[in-house]
Amino acid sequence: MKKKGAALASVLFAGVLAGCSFGAGSSSESSENATTIEIFQGKVEFNDQFEELAEKYEEENPDIDIKITSVGGGSDYAGSLKTKFASGDEPEIFSIAGPTESANYEEYLADLSDTELADLALEGTLNPVTKDGELHGLPFNQEGYGLIYNKDMFKEAGIDPSEILTYEDLENAVQTLDSQKDELGIEAVFAFPAKEKWVPGNHLSNVYLAPEFDHMVMEAYQAEDVQFERNKEYKRMIDLQNDYSIQPTLSLDYSQQVEQYFSLQEVAIIQQGNWVYPSVEQMDPDFAKEGMGILPIPVEGEEGKLPVGVPNYWAVNNNSDDETVQAAKDFLDWMYTSDVGKDYVLNEFNFIPAYEGYNTDEISDPLSKEIYQYASENQTTGWVFLGYPGTWGDYVGSNVQKYIDGEMTWDKLVKDSKQEWTKMDQ
Amino acid sequence: MSNRSPWFWLFLSPVVLSLLLVVVVPFVYGFLFSFTDWNGLVANSFVGFQNYVQLFQEAEFLNSIWFTVKFAVVTVLLLNAMGLGLGLALLVTRSIRSNNWLRTIFFMPNLIGGLILGFIWQFIFINVFSDIGNRIGSEALQGWLSTTSTGFWGLVILTAWQMAGYIMIIYIAYLENIPKELIEAAKIDGASSVQRFKNITFPLVAPAFTVSMFLTLSMGFKIYDQNLSLTNGGPFNSTQMVAMEIVRTAFSDNEMAYAQAKAVIFFLIVAVIALTQVFYNKKREVEM
Fold this sequence. Notes:
The structure holds two protein chains of two kinds.
Chain A: H1 2-25, E1 35-41, H2 47-60, E2 64-70, H3 75-86, E3 93-96, H4 98-104, H5 116-120, E4 130-131, E5 134-135, E6 138-139, E7 143-150, H6 151-156, H7 167-179, H8 181-184, E8 188-190, H9 198-209, H10 217-222, H11 231-243, H12 254-262, E9 267-273, H13 277-283, H14 285-290, E10 292-295, E11 306-309, E12 313-316, H15 322-337, H16 339-348, H17 366-376, E13 380-381, H18 392-405, H19 410-425
Parallel strand pairs in A: 1-2, 1-3, 8-9, 11-13
Antiparallel strand pairs in A: 3-12, 4-5, 6-12, 7-9, 7-10, 7-11
Chain B: H1 6-33, H2 50-55, H3 59-92, H4 99-107, H5 114-136, H6 148-176, H7 180-188, H8 193-204, H9 206-222, H10 225-230, H11 242-251, H12 256-284
Helix pairs in contact in B: 3-6, 3-9, 4-6, 6-9, 7-8, 9-12, 11-12
């Protein structure tokens, strides 16, 4: 009796466990002998379109089965990827963001220098993921940020955006806008989301630190310390945005900035990038298509240049057999070089391509188009913040919050942030 | 236990196994990992107590503990006062027809998830408060959640609003169980209402205190989602509670083992406080 019971228990329990694993694995319909490529990536915005494209590839190549898992942005993704690897359920293709993450996964990264894309990638985009002659990643796309402004308001206030180059120009424009707040029907000139540490901490600090590191991510990544030479310029830009912003900035977040204040045309300028386009489009499609322009954040000696960079790279896991690695590479090549793939990249993913051979007139959203313009004219500065040590960007963002709150003086902020760089770099 | 039938173990096994798998095993693992330099992928070496030494020197972690303690003390007092208060009020007004309806309403906030609540209250604190402030010309209602103290009180208000109904239900259950004869006898003996509350009602709801104190204490310490969605630790991480600090250390700073060490310390603090509290409150309880 005892034995019988135990056996029954184990059968029942096995059933429970098996039920779990069946439940989890049933999402893909795979044909037999298929090579399965599991893709794990963090850009949820284009998940549906990406799946569609993968299905098209499966139709062309019946022996390939592609499974896509997209996990929400930011730290969420990094954590989940780690769990995947720790549990042994490793994806074949995954995304990494710049040299810090690439160093974390170094032992898993296959050399991609024999792919077609390696030759087609735009100049400079591969530097952050090249190590000892091996290429560890292929760019997703390009992104750029700056000061996104409301075209109509600028026109109404009599400001010509093409004439804004230096900080002084910008300051004048801001004061003009501020003096006409009532006529323009705005609450303030800026919406400065100081609550989001990455806005001042990563993006804004980047434009003032990029010259120091020759616009090279790797320079920043390898630097043992930071000079912060242009901290005075950084300060006056924070002051300008903060003084002329909706108050209080310390509780103003990204969605209020983009959706509430900018999309509803309650402010004239925000510091953001082309990724705001879908949100603005959801709020007001006409405004999104016609009403937005982008200006570079003025930096002395670097006027008229926009920070453009590659936020994410595709990496291939070398921990699978050669055939699978090759299949993964083939898929990536196909995605960015075939006609179907190109069409999807431009029109469905709304990517700014980081590869040659695209008809860029087809870029549909105006912000991306403008950014691509800057990129193709080489009027860009680097995204060195991807090479900041650890979470230094957040740390600076937190210090900026203290500065705005009056808890920390600017000199203290500079000194403290410099020390933290050296500490985190160890 | 040994003479129990196999059926006993059969029906117990799913619970025991899942408890082992999802609570005990990870706990032991985590404890072990806190002595290494584990980064989430590999543990290279055994570092002894280094993580523990380091965490007691980290200002941010200590700040978050202090903030959490303050928060827990205030919410425990407030929640129990409100829970008991609401419970008594509803008992006294039992004859009102809307009584049951009111109970449901007070309990309802507890059914909304913490994340959503955080976002709802964020809107209330930032937009509604400042609009009201503008109308009545009050400075005090402006700029909520942009300073440490408004962030703190914002969290307290949110938690009180969410949990008071739940605690109220516990108190009501005990209050209703107090025998009417006792109250009546006391009344006949000429005890005033204050005396009746102090000498009869209060001692008899002591078990409810034990339960509620335990619940509110452990919740006050472990709160995470409300914290995340309401203030996200801002401004400058000053409203960051321990749970959030640990998650950040683990997943943003990528220091898994160090975060695990913090979690072990956190566990010890919560366990010691909660158990001491239960021990003393148990002693106070009276048997009828």
